[in-house]
Fold:
Amino acid sequence: MLGLQRFTGSVVTQLYRRATYSSNARAASAALATAASSNGHGSPDDAETRASAATATAAEATRKQKGSGQMVAAAFSSLRNESESSVKSTTNPAVNNIDERIINAKTVNGLLAITENNNAFNRKHALKIVSILAEWSTINRVKISEFENDSRFLRLCRMLGRTALPKNGVNGKNGSSSNGNNSTTKRISGFRTDDLNTVLGVAGDDEAAKLIASISLPQMVKVMSTLAQRKRRSTPLLRSLAFNISSAADQLDLKQSADVLYAMSMLNFQDSVLGAKVCADVQAALPKNSEKSAVVGSILTSLGIMRYRDLDILESLTQWLLKNCEICRPQDLSAYFLTAALLNFKTAQLEDVRKKLAKSIVREDFTRQSDWLNYVWSLTMLGLVEHGQLESVLSTDFLPLLQSDKAGLTPTSKMRLLNLNSYAQLCATDYKGSLLAPDSPVYQVPMAHNKSKQILVNGMLDALKSLLPASNHVLTSVDSKMGFLIDATCQFDAQRNALPLDKKHPDAIRVALMVVDFHDICHGTHRSASGITNLTFDLLEKSGYQVVPVPYNEFSTSDKLLKRVQYLEAKFKDVVSGK
Structure:
């Protein structure tokens, strides 16, 4: 009954990790701030209890006997779907007689004997019997071993398990499962579609989360992949999957690791323990892969989307690409450069990467101009861009080509072009190539912070205006013309006296305050500012500003105004004193 207890026990609680960022070290790892969170759920009604217990019965049978267990799981998946729907009564005397016998049965044998030599026996009766058996096993009236291998019970499982999914789909939305009635025979990665539907087809996320502990590791991966495909972000289910996958003794293979990372990135689900487990398994499986670069490209893309920074796995992926560069597709190499740039990662073998990987990619490898732009932008953040590549995207010929793409000239493309234009002027040594025209439409880009960051910015501005009350001492939300907003600017003299911004002061110390929120940093084992944040700060410093980062974990709008003012005052003191 251990498996049954695992099903009917409480939902596993787990800490939700939040990464923090230190304003004193942009490129260094920062301390981890964790916040505990837990799930609770109300008592289910009788139908849900019987259905949950029925699913538990299936899981126990699966462990006892592989073939019949899968059939049991399918039966109980169907049981849950049907237990929530009303069943019309019949006036057939034979049918009514069966109903009475089921109600009056007091033993397992008495229930199962009803199934024998009875032409009027139907699926409604099978549903009732399985539900009663599940209820009896829940209250320890009977043991699962008494009936799990009984041919009559397996017949009930076949009756319930071979039906197609309900018309409204597994998750209660319009649509249907692929292959319909063939789901009882189709196998996916070695397990049945019905086993997966047992988890995804239940009504409540908390109930589904209870089932995760009973399924195998490949099944957990498949459940997670299916959640991503259906864009179903069930937090209780994802946390249960993360806990059980992280706790599994078996290693994920490379494909399974890629699937988990893809699901995490598509569902925007951060879990540092699961991420560490997957990255460790990737490192173990990577040397065995010498033929497929697509799975490596998928892993790299997912790490970049999640902003998950683990220097060990990134270094291992770099070495694999260098060793197997002949079989790597251009899109996989491009994914490496983009992810490395976003994660602010520069390998110890950067020169080899320049010669073997960067040199092997040419503009003709990209069908979309936006992909070429992204590639050049990533090389810029890594310090690997060449003058010819910069000129190729800043020339007047490139903009019409970019506009001809299906997506057109997007705000993201505009901001990246402005990044490159500023880099060419401020950072690229001896650059003599083209630059964006002053009247270029690229400068017409709407820029605004997301809601959570704007709250932090407003809290910072309130404190700043208390510290510098004169209206001409502070400018806010300044368009830098470099592809980003400056949250606030001000300037001081050597004695830390604020100076008006409407007058020029040759010796003034120009300060740019930049709020750094959760999305501006990389998470994972080795946390730091993202590559975009670093590029922003570099361009500001090259423009003559002293950058004052205001990280979300050091500056809170819930703090009293006096505390926030003192925080900014200490930052200004450090800047003026040259610390």
Observations:
- The chain is about 50% helix and 10% strand.
- Residues 1-20, 27-69, 78-91, 162-195 have pLDDT under 50 and may be disordered.
- The first strand starts at residue 14 and ends at 19.
- The two ends are 65 Å apart (CA to CA).
